Amino acid sequence: MKFQAVNGFKDILPDEAVRWRRLEEQARAVFRRFGLREVRVPILESTGLFARAIGEATDVVEKEMYTFADKGLTLRPEATAGLLRAYIEHGLHVQQPVQRLFTIGPMFRHERPQKGRQRQFHQIDVEIIGASEPGIDAELMAMAQMVFDELGLQVSLEINSIGCPQCRPDFRVKLVDYLSSRMDGLCEDCRRRVSTNPLRALDCKNRGCRSVVQDAPSIIDSLCRDCDTHFTAVRQHLDAFGLRYAVNRFMVRGLDYYTRTTFEFTTDQLGAQSAIAAGGRYDGLIEQLGGPAKMPGIGFGMGMERIVLLMEQQADTEKAIERADLFVAALGEQALSCAAPLVHELRKLGFAAAIDYSSRSLKAQMKQADRVKARFVLILGEEEIVRHEAALRNMDSQEQSAFPLAGTAAVLAERLAGLISL
User: Fold this and answer.
1) What is the pLDDT of residues 102-124, one digit of tens each?
2) Are residues 159 and 31 in the same domain?
3) Could you tell me if 239 and 388 lie in one domain?
4) What is the reported pTM?
């Protein structure tokens, strides 16, 4: 019987994994500069955690979670809830008032699989907990922008404020009144949302709903003084950082825990899946989950599948190719017995070295060197053993030079390292 991957669960093969690893490494390098520390949390959590954090009236909780109903457990549909559970459980706020954390891993949602959206998908998640200053909001967005810039990706930043528990109720009344008078133009989901989660109608992708909300009241016009001051300061910091952005008054986040600042990084090169990173502030969520009172927080998630697709379209494809530093073409048993220890010593020195143990012809081994994109090839056969001199070929310039075979494998490796690291 032949088995295949489950629908919506995708294999990441070696050629593609190169880009995945480059994305992770670039993100980690940027995060280190901003003082972030990594947390690794389980993929399985209590169902109640997500219902409490995300909101029972959201599409995620109502329709999309993979839940083991008899066990009360759910595969995580997003990362923030689990990371905050770990933050609270282990009392990280006691160790340090402001925590800068990130996690990388798979998430699970039962959606219709499509390009850039799988049922098992992967996110890079960042959270800054314990800081309420608007400069933190701007710094977080600047950090995400830096990751994209250093990957060579062109993206757009959109921001909004969705207020707080003090100013949002008045806006909700205005929005419900507006939507209720236009129910015929709304999709079935949005007609239901009018009474449960009306803000979600503002960013519905249905064409009819988008037409209806064009003239809907804006939350920005209903912000209380504190929220308005905060949002103004966020924009001032973004301007100071030199970040380009647009205010999108219809942008709301799909999870109930967001307050004040929300933002998305988008692209026009992936069709309907335009958002490749998104997040916002969630002041009050930590207390709601049993943590310290009035503990502020802000974070974002990067969709790795979509970013990798964008890397394939925008970035220099040569950067995604992993190259071997050296391939040793050993011809014959005597050459192989000399070459194998040499390759091992080179690997100990940190070089990517390859060897073919099958003793195939030189032509076949040179093809293998091309497959691993070797920068150099050391040709070693019986004649070379007799002369105590191998041939070292630069595969980019095709220049070839003699390499003396005098000394132990460790000595030869040290000498080779100096030549191939130039």
Assistant:
1) 999 999 998 888 777 789 999 99
2) yes
3) no
4) 0.85
